[in-house]
Automatic annotation (TrEMBL):
GO molecular function: DNA-binding transcription factor activity; transcription cis-regulatory region binding
Similarity comment: Belongs to the LysR transcriptional regulatory family.
InterPro entries: LysR_HTH_N, LysR_subst-bd, WH-like_DNA-bd_sf, WH_DNA-bd_sf
Keyword Glycoprotein: no
PANTHER family: HTH-TYPE TRANSCRIPTIONAL REGULATOR, HTH-TYPE TRANSCRIPTIONAL REGULATOR GLTR
Superkingdom of origin organism: Bacteria
Record's protein name: LysR family transcriptional regulator
Stored Gene3D superfamilies: Periplasmic binding protein-like II, Winged helix-like DNA-binding domain superfamily/Winged helix DNA-binding domain
Keywords, sorted A to Z: DNA-binding, Transcription, Transcription regulation
Length: 296
């Protein structure tokens, strides 16, 4: 138990990059946190944190060890949860695309909390490709992601069976290309005059679809401006110099201005992915909540 506590202290300090901040969150004294870190570093024979004055940073060894520490703590909690038959509170590690987190998850997670208030939820967001890798690696219990239609309809989809993952459909999204108003009623892709696309970094399914529909790889005049959020992307479109792509469900929640137009790009299914045969009580409770929210 003492070793687990030291790992918990290290993970908290690595997150805060501050002994004082971690001590406050953990309800410990800074000296106690420092002592635990020093003993942990001595026991593994490596410096985990680089100390420069009052600043802290993870060392190369610390970055590697952090991933293992998080997995060990997660497996400990999972083992207690499973052995107790769900009587011990569980932690759900769920991943999601930004769009799904913004438009779909608030209602779902509220329903999950109402039905199972004892469970904890850790939510992280990433592009679909990274989410897929994190589920396979066991960093996430499950993730909401999407594949472009070209992937689903191609022989590449057969490789999904090799990944050792299971999928179920969650929501269907209407994808739109948002661009400056051209003054044309019902514009098509040929009416898009800008040549800059604001989008998430590579690995985003929606970006991939926009690039395909606009034939961006074949036209060198197009520029991709990578953005950190949909709010930034929509703001860039409002400047009159960018187009962007997002689900209509997200766009409608933003109270968009009048100087933008929408062009439909098609429909995409958001799926919940998880490792085959992965069935902890907390994850089964979450899947049941998702099923109920979709009307069975």
């Amino acid at each position: 138990m003492e070793d687990f506590e030291s790992l918990r202290v290290f993970v908290c300090v690595a997150s805060e990059l501050s002994v004082t901040g971690a001590a406050r969150l953990l309800g410990k004294s800074p000296s106690n946190v420092t002592t635990r870190l020093q003993k942990l570093e001595a026991s593994i024979g490596a410096e985990l944190l680089v100390r420069t004055g009052k600043s802290l940073a993870l060392s190369a060894a610390g970055e590697v060890f952090l991933e293992y520490a998080e997995r060990i703590l997660s497996l400990r909690d999972e083992s207690l949860h499973v052995v107790s038959g769900g009587q011990s509170p569980g932690t759900l590690r769920i991943g999601s695309m930004e769009a799904t987190a913004a438009s779909r998850l608030p209602e779902l997670l509220a329903a999950f909390h109402q039905s199972f208030p004892e469970h904890r939820v850790k939510l992280s967001t990433s592009p679909s490709i990274r989410l897929l890798d994190d589920v396979r690696a066991g960093k996430l219990d499950g993730a909401f992601l999407a594949f472009p239609p070209s992937f689903i309809d191609s022989p590449l989809s057969e490789k999904l069976d090799v990944l050792g993952l299971a999928f179920c459909d969650a929501w269907e999204e209407s994808l739109i290309l948002l661009h400056p108003d051209t003054g044309i009623d019902n514009p098509g892709l040929e009416d898009v005059s800008v040549r800059t696309l604001a989008a998430f970094p590579p690995g985003c399914t929606y970006r991939s679809m926009a690039e395909s529909c606009l034939q961006i790889p074949e036209h060198k005049e197009w520029v991709i401006q990578e953005s950190p959020s949909y709010h930034v992307m929509v703001a860039l479109a409002c400047t009159g110099r960018c187009a962007t792509v997002l689900p209509e469900s997200v766009y409608r929640k933003m109270l968009p201005p009048d100087n933008l137009q929408c062009i439909p790009l098609g429909r995409v299914t958001t799926k919940l992915a998880w490792r085959k045969d992965y069935a902890t009580p907390v994850f089964e409770d979450f899947r049941a909540t998702l099923t109920n929210s979709m009307g069975g």
